[in-house]
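Hi everyone, sorry if this is the wrong subforum. Our group has a chain we'd like a structural model of before ordering constructs, and none of us has done structure prediction before. Sequence below.
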Amino acid sequence: MRNWIKFSGIILFALLAACQSSKNFLGVDSSPATPPKRTNQNTPPPTSSVGALSTNLEDELEKPKEIKIKKSFENENYNQAIIDYKEELKSEPDSPLYNYFVAESYRKTNRIYESSPYYAKAIEGGFADDEMELYYAQSLKVNQKYEEAKSVLQKYIQYAQVDRFVERAKTELANLDKLDSLQLNVRNIDVENAAAVNTENAEYSPYFFNDELYFSAGREAEQFERYGIPFTDLYKVKSNGLKVDAASLEKLSSIFNEDEINEGSIAFSPDGNTVVFAKGNTDDKKGRLNIDLFMSTKRNGEWQAASIMPINSPDAWDSSPSFSQDGKTLYFSSDRPGGFGGADIYRAKLNDRGRWGDVQNMGPTINTTEEEMFPYVSPDNKLYFSSNGHAGFGMLDVFVAINSGGTITIQNMGPSINSSYDDFGLVYSDFPFEGFFSSNRPGGKGDDDIYTFVDNSSDLKKIEYVLSGTTYQLNDDSTKSILADVKVRLMSKDNQLIDDQVTGRGGSFQFKVDPEMEYIVIGEKPNFFTNRVIFSTIGELVRQEDLVERFTTKKFETSLTLDAIVLEKTIVLQNIYYDLSKFDIRDDAALELDKLVQLLKDNPNIKIELSSHTDSRADDDFNLDLSEKRAQSAVRYLILKGISQNRLVAKGYGETRLINGCTNDVECSEEEHQKNRRTEFKVIEYQNN
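Answer:
Right subforum, don't worry. Here is the predicted structure as tokens:
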């Protein structure tokens, strides 16, 4: 990882180096090379006065050899500058000037993690630079020396005289104080190097679309002469989820790639008919200023020549595009004037005429005085991006911005994704479980590498509770057969409709249900009695931590059996008992009559006759009178439960309709007599609406 257009190392037009706004396409800082001088020394030199040190530095810079070495730095050939100044350090290892230039050269090639000892020597030697302690603290932070970084910043605030640098130091101190809480944001995430696509050069800025992984890679034979790295181009490879098919790797056509020009950070519109990518960065000092967004559209299945987008800003770095889920908003990063510091995230709108415009900065909640880039909008409309200005672990970290009711909160993705190095360009291939991102963390193949991640955290795992059932018809022989075209309603316990559907030829129905709930399932069909069953999921909750698979379905089963409405067909009400020679409704009989109450409420279009029968014992007239009173008693109970009297007819038949041979003077068992003591009803009127 050398420059930042590769972004994490040379981040493909992506990264501007180390908190500066004057960077080239690679993100390499292109600020003036003259050693900083101060009228006021912020860091008191331990061995010499400010004036003496300044004089000594000026004397050194007048040496012909030193001017030659300074030229490599001045020409932004920072790799060569590192070699040149390290050669000088062999004879003068404590030189504050040489150490400063080595440190700065590492920082400007996005290798600030290597600059710590050189900044330390420069500070120890009394070198005067207003920002040096800020960069030194940053290099310590990247190397996870957090307490040392705090100490440097705390001391710096005491004597620094430039207000904006003091504010930066205070902000970074506040960010360092948040590290303990950030460390707690641990998720069960597996991160692996996507070795099949990575090389010793840079691979970064992944984008997953239509089972293909697109990314930027530095593989051209030609190199940036000043940086010693290959130009970057756009590639794609087939990918089954996270498993890439290395044999399918191919470089995109000349519509997208051009020799000796860097291309990178590609994004597709949701419909796949528009692509936006970054392009530019010639091999000269001002190459940094020509990084722009280009767009190509598909016509008749073919990509058309790419054209520069009108949303670019002259003399600014515009890169890392990403579409919203509806394709009408384009997010991107830019260091154009008017922002909050380095590179900021902006958005542009697609108007009714199909033109992009109305560019707006995303505001100070997302953007900081440092760098924000690589935006990505997930399927649930959360904005992921990378930043070194929000509280993080070192260099660029991945963050997510969540908009809840107009209030935006920024969350660090935590140590399961982020390292103390550059982590950026996160995209999902299977939301919210897995995807890709880029990093130059140790252990990779070389420079920036592409990594895969799989989030196995239990809170992402989903469970669906499903009630499935079948509708049947009860046949005359007491068997059941499938009944189609039944309207099935899922009701809440308080009779509120939740969902309904009509069964097909198979008589099946299915509803999504919630855990720890009670439901009523009602089936209705013309010429059939409407029927209901009670269903409950209480006690069936599966705990989140017990889920194993990404998606789990817990199934419940029930059935609905409907009886055909046949006029004058008697239906026996089971378990309706009376005390001997009495007609009062007993509690056990009331439970059974309540079922008839519900049936009548569910079937308001029927009128019934409710009849009572006795056995043959006792006098015939007595039995007839007793049965009439029992029938009347049952009807009164139904009326008290809300059934209209107009729908009810009470009839007592005594012993006139025995269902077996247990007549007078015939000896029968108690069980046989019990069969004759029964309560029945039959439909005597039916209005089929």
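For your construct planning: The chain has four domains: 50-183, 190-457, 462-562, 570-686. Residues 620-640 form the longest helix (21 residues).
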